[in-house]
Amino acid sequence: MHSLNDMRKQFQDALEESRKHTRVVIGLGTCGIAAGGDKIWHEVSRYIETHRLEVEMMSTGCIGMCYAEPLMEVHMPGEPRFIYGNLTPEAAVDILKLHLSEGKPSPEYIVAQDPRGFEAAANITRLDETPFYKRQTKNILGRCGIIDPEQIVHYIALDGYAALEKVLSAMSPIQVIEVISRSGLRGRGGGGFPTGRKWEAAYHSYGSKKYVVCNADEGDPGAFMDRSVLEGDPHELLEGMAICGYAIGADEGYIYVRAEYPLAIKRLKKAIRDAESMGILGDNILGSGFNFRVQIAAGAGAFVCGEETALMHSIEGKRGMPRVRPPYPAQSGLWGKPTNINNVETYANVPGIIRQGADQFAAMGTENSKGSKVFALTGKINRTGLAEVPIGISLRDIVFDIGGGIQNHKKYKAVQIGGPSGGCIPENLLDTPVDYDSLLQLGAMMGSGGLVVMDEDTCMVDVARYFLHFTQEESCGKCAPCREGTMRMLQILEKICDGKGTPQDLDTLESLCRVVKTTSLCGLGQSAPNPVLATLRYFRSEYEAHIYDKKCHAGVCTELLDITINADKCKGCTVCVDVCPTGAIKGERKKPHVIDPAVCIKCQACMVKCKFGAISRG
Amino acid sequence: MCNCNETIPDLRYAALEKTLEKYQGKSGKIIPALQETQEIFGYLPDDAIKAIAAALKVPSSEIFGVATFYGQFHLQARGKNIIRVCTGTACHVQGSGKILDAITQTLGLTGGMMTTEDLLFTVEPVACLGACGMAPVIMINEEAYGRVSPDDVPEILAQYQEKDGKEKCIA
Fold first, then answer.
1. Beta strands in chain B (DSSP E)
2. A577, exposed or middle or buried, with CB in 10 Å at 0-12, 13-18, 19+?
3. Does B126 contact A at CB distance below 8 Å?
4. How many inter-chain contacts (A to B, CB under 8 Å) are there?
5. Which residues does chain A have within 8 Å of residue B147's beta carbon, measured at their own beta carbons?
6. Would you give the DSSP letter of residue A29?
7. pLDDT per residue as tens digits for the range B18-70
8. Cβ B93–A380 below 8 Å, yes or no?
9. For B121, phi and psi rounded to 5 degrees?
10. Which of A145, A389, A558, B139 is a plausible cystine mate for A602, CB 3.0–4.6 Å?
């Protein structure tokens, strides 16, 4: 078998050599581009070209600090890596100018420095000491934001494909499965099934043709961990899948990526081509006799395809509807053949476990949940972004230490964990350790790892209605409990939000939840009631306020709002009259105005425009 | 000279025929075939569905079944520019509803209409674009805009209206 070691050494030397040049690195994941990273790239490269500067430009994937996007790093030879954030194209050029002319970092936009063995600059926080990074363990995201994801040589230089080499040269399939089992790795897609056991079942299934499938249909609103891996380190996934193929005896793999991730699809395609051209994927990999090919199947916009049997139907070109299990995919999966299916993050964990050993992985986490987990922090939180933490850390640490607490000094209300299949966690339970079992007990679930933080301005009845609206739209319609049940639940929630709820509705809602949860065919229906059950459990008083007092204290449910003008504060400036779309505000100039509630549509445009804070809702 | 009034042969069907060559008899490739067809036409016309059925050797009812199952496929003509408004959880709590209102208002869309009469824009609320850290997010064609406020909407849309105005009739 050929070894990659000579090549790896060469690439490492090349990388070392490139550090001797001045380099600008810009984060161009989807988040970075949405924040304007590509405009910065354009402006900086134009500046470099017009002045014929010897500066190398490199793009990278998600660094995780969405809150500070767009980001740019400047690497000068022999100096720390300086990371700048919240940039404009002009500011980025000025920063580069200052580095080149005076050899100084710009204090204004600096986020952190990473000394990388060089002398640190004074008065700038080190990256690993920033509150956002301090508690994190970069395990699967170790290369994201460091390497250029479109350069396979970067991946190889940083230990990439060393695990595949190790497996092919020195381990039997059963030994590989044994290591994965011993590591305690559990599926990162939501359910948390032990990965080793899944692989073992597929290994023992009889058949000459088997498949490895990767679920990259990250459909939970509020989750983007998998996208960051696909965009930021695609080879890590390919390596994990190839190792799985070797372990279970499969020679073909499929990655099912949702259509909403065009950049991820583009980068994966390039990664597959590059790996094939270097003999790392394809026939007779590295001369070992093992064959493994990977294909991409682009999804077409159906949330239910995140369910494994529906996903496989979709790859087969059918309507993506789930079926009853058993038989499980390990026995009869894609085209009826034994199939192993895991999600992106699960496969991405595999190379690290093989390289560093099961024990090192198992040393992290809690008794029954090992390793690290990537969470997407979003919503009303100061530092939005991606955080990889050891499992077992408390929610409070994630939301307040890493995430920096709630935006605009508002009060925390809840965090939704696990998307539309999960539940919300109130303040008094924030010290719960985040692991598979503790979250289930609270009526939430780990899910894929989306954390949406909500503040006092969020109405929890509206949140439940929002999630039900989502699952009801996405229900495939195959089984009656999910098709009809989610519809009825949504109707009741809409009634309550409109102020027409009755006490009886809460009982009906609860009994519907039980039926849908216990009798639906697949995970979508079985977990659809979770957001309702969790909000009823922890925020019942909000439901009651909507039903009995006809009040939405968060001021979200417009039907329950009264918009009024405080006559003492109103100066009669008439700005509100001009902005009101329905002409509901009347009054003479310089005299207090009044709103006609019969005409007011409660759009609150007047509240936003009023400079005197005279308009309030209640 | 302006050629706007001349009838031009529909090159799209020629492109479709060429695309379908690689899927001849491959009944498992309905989804990629539909995706590429939609790339060509912007939606899935009846005749194109029939052509796919003939090429893949699958009844057109089955193609139709797949096309109507997935949110990505459209059976009606759509605007030249597709505005996808993310209504994912993070965007929802950051006020994506107001962004959607601002867009429909700016484009003069009423009564649930999602495509402008001049076929310049189609508005499409979508589940999650996966850029939650930048919420609220909209995506116009392949271009993503993050941390959008309702006040930004007219300016963002104007770029596309202008671009199109210029292309329309240079003569």
1. 81-86, 121-126, 138-140, 143-145
2. middle
3. yes
4. 136
5. 35
6. S
7. 999 999 999 889 999 999 999 999 899 999 999 999 999 999 999 999 999 99
8. yes
9. -130, 145
10. A558
